[in-house]
Each structure stands twice: as C-alpha cells, then as structure tokens.
Amino acid sequence: MTNEIRNGDQSEAVAAIGAIELPTQTADLLAEPIAAAVPLSLRPTPRRVLVTGATRGIGAAIAQSLAAAGWHVTLAGRTRAALEEVLVTLPITEGLTHDWVELDVADAASVSRAFAQVHAKGGALQALVNNAGAVETSPLVRLRQDSWDRMLAVNLTGVFLCTQAALPPMIAARAGRIVNVASTAGQKGYAYCTAYAAAKHGVLGLTRSLALEVAAHGIAVNAVCPGYTDTAIVRDGVARIVAATGRAEADALATFSKASPLQRLVEPDEVAAAVRWLCADAPLAYTGQAMSVSGGEVTN
Fold first, then answer.
1. CA 228 to CA 78: how far, in whole Å?
2. What was the pLDDT predicted at 249?
C-alpha cells in the first residue's frame, strides 16, 4: 500500500461525502421514508454501471452481460489499449453507447479523477461492480511485506476507494447497487495465498457493514464469491505448476477443478450472470450477502 493511499490529501470523494449530512443514529435513518424495494430493472433507463478490472476474465464477462441487458457500461482499467479492445466487443442495445476510463484502483488520486469524469458525464451510477483484483502466492514464512501490501491495496483498499467515490451521488438519488467480486478465498481460505485471502475476507466485512449503513438510502451492497474460474489467473497458475513440477497440464489443471463438486472450473459467464442479477433484478431486501458461485464448493 502506497504512502499516498495511507497519508495522502483528502480525496474529492471524501470531500463530497463530508458535504452530505449523513444520519448517525438509527432513529435518524428511519425518520425518512425507506426507499421502495424496486429492482433497478424496473427503473427508468438508461442504467449506468462502472466495472473495474474490466479488460479480461470475469470483468470482461460482466461488462458483456450487462451491456447485452441494455446497460450503459463504463469499463475501468489501467491500460487504455486493453480498454479500447474490450469496448468494441460490447453489444449495443437501444442506441446506447459505452465508454471507458483509465483507473488504478489502488491509487486514491486516480480513483478520484476517474469518478469525477464519470459523474460529470452522467451523474449518479446505478451500479458499481468492484471486480479488479490480483493474486500472488507464497508460503507465509516467505511472504514479503511489499507483496502483502499489494494484495491489500488492490483487493481491499481498491474496493474501499471506488465505493467511497461512487456513493455520494447514489445516496442523493436514493438508489444504487454495489457488487463486490470477492472469492471463495474470502469464505474459507486457501493455503499459500494468505494475503489474498485476508483481503477477500476484508471485502466481505466491508460488504456486510456498508449494507447496514446504506439500506435506508435505497442502496444494496452484496458480494459474489467465485471459486476457481477459467481465467488467465488460473491458467497462469497451471503453467507455474507445470514448470515447477513437470506434471502434465491436464493433471495440473485438476488441482484447481477438483475443488468443485462439479469437477470443473467455474465459467466467467456464470459469475457474470450472478452479478447481472444483483445489479438489475435482485430486490433491495437482498443486501449484505456473499453469494458463492463455486459449484457447491462453499455453501451458505
């Protein structure tokens, strides 16, 4: 985690939140009418969503799914070329167009700039999908602190920064959906990825606590917890096993796929379907939940 994130000047997002008089007591929250539990799919269009980590894997699948459902999608990621490559593949319905914004979720200044641009274009987002993430593996006894800091910065602090930046206009609109892509590592833990698992456990804590804060403002906050998914991250893991052990690729892949009762990897489209439901059709009463998309590896 960088010094800028820990000790930097107050971001525009923090300043915006400070300008809103948020109630601090339960009685204050309930003094206003509770927002109607109307799914966003029934609210007026266009609906706008920002997806972080949208240039590959689960993030790209989520962007495709929501675009196909008629959402205006803003792709967010660190690399312009990759963002433009995904942008041209998104389906366009009802004359909607999509766009992208450069964003490093672990950099507070980058997050502040990106969300200022997004809000200036169209006001409040109807949904935010915090998908950006990274994995580094190591036995804890050899885990370097800089690796620990990166895992928390990207996987947990990034969720905090983006959510904090998206919230004020959602609160003002009294409607919104926030979906955090966590992991089964946040539900059960895995050996050799302690920092990643700790960060994903933190994402679930953030999800549950924030859901309590903003329910009365018409905002639902949930997490999706994929199991091992057929993405570049898992394929890179397979390649490392093959290189280190000389095992056959199919045998190395079984190390991951056998974790699921389905005996296969989760497909990115399966995760995207869960996210799409949470963004569009889930009622407001469904909030503060961790939905496992793992073929039964984890059951709630």
1. 24
2. 85
**Cis bond leading into 46, ω under 30°?**
yes
pLDDT interval class at 31 (50, 70, 90): very low
CB 100 within 8 A of CB 84: yes
pTM > 0.90 = no
Whether domain 46-227+268-291 has CATH 3.40.50.720: the reply is: yes
Which of 199, 196, 5 shows the shortest CA–CA distance to 107? 5
Where exactly does CATH 3.40.50.720 map onto the chain?
Answer: 46-227+268-291
- Residue 250 CA, chain-centre distance (Å), reads 30
Question: Residue 262: what residue type?
Answer: L
**Residues across the chain:** 300
Q: Is 286 a residue of the active site?
A: no
Q: Which of 152, 273, 290 shows the shortest CA–CA distance to 210?
A: 290
Tell me the average pLDDT across 101-124. 97
- Tracing tokens 């095992």 back to the chain, one arrives at 247
Residue among 192, 196, 228, 286 flagged as catalytic: 196
Q: In what order do the strands lie in the sheet with 290-293?
A: 99-102, 72-77, 48-52, 127-130, 176-181, 219-226, 290-293
